[in-house]
Design goal:
The chain contains no helices and seven strands. The chain is elongated.
């Protein structure tokens, strides 16, 4: 997965990703997906197990939308 650079207060871009195995989308039906993030400068965790939206379960597509409360966590 490519690195994403954001600054404190950014709420874009939303993160859209697809889970794949051997090039094929992983079926996420009945699954829960969470997002965690670390500060690259000092390796402190700034988001822990935040909920992601499963956009298309059959193909493994998920989305993470930043929340307003995360503007003040780093």
């Amino acid at each position: 997965m490519a690195d994403v650079s954001i600054r404190k207060g950014d709420r874009l871009p939303q993160l859209d990703r697809q889970f794949t195995l051997n090039g094929v989308g992983v079926n996420l039906t009945s699954s829960t997906v969470t997002f965690s993030m670390w500060d690259a400068a000092d390796v402190t965790q700034v988001i822990t197990d935040a909920a992601c939206t499963i956009v298309t379960a059959a193909t493994g597509n998920v989305r993470y939308l930043w929340t307003r409360s995360e503007e003040h966590t780093s």
